Amino acid sequence: MTRIVAGTVGGRTLEVPRRGTRPTSERVREALFSRLEHLGVVSGAEVLDLYAGSGALGLEAASRGAAHVTLVESARPAAALVRRNAAALGLAVEVVTGKVETYLDGAAPRPADLALLDPPYDLGDERLATALDLLAARWLTPDAVVVVERSRRSPEPGWPAGLSRFDERRYGETRVWFAEPA
Asked: What would be one Pfam family of this protein (predicted)?
């Protein structure tokens, strides 16, 4: 069972896809959002949840007071599920069905204060690097925070010239990197 950890809909459950996604565990989301709230980048933020999967990260941000959340997911069934979860929770978010790279290659409607990337484990390092490069090029505010979540066994992302890593955390089998515009 996947639940929203805190905020206006804390404790409410999320429906998750039967296969094809790996929702961020409740424990990792709790630690991650504790760190993000300490950094002051959630409340009132413009948030991008890229590779949204079940939508757990973006919906958590919306529950915790983000001003606007855009969730991008390429799998149509997962994107439809995110829409149903948002509606069931009464959270107003934008869900985009499409590839992250295609979305980021378009015009940025609003710069993001927080970008959450939790790609599938089988996503190649090159595709992640392309997404980070596009994100850094035109999608971030000067004080933005970028979070990349991967398996503990995954290598650190290849950061483009426009991003600089400032922290790394490990939570069991999960590694989380934090970066900011360089």
From this structure: Cons_hypoth95
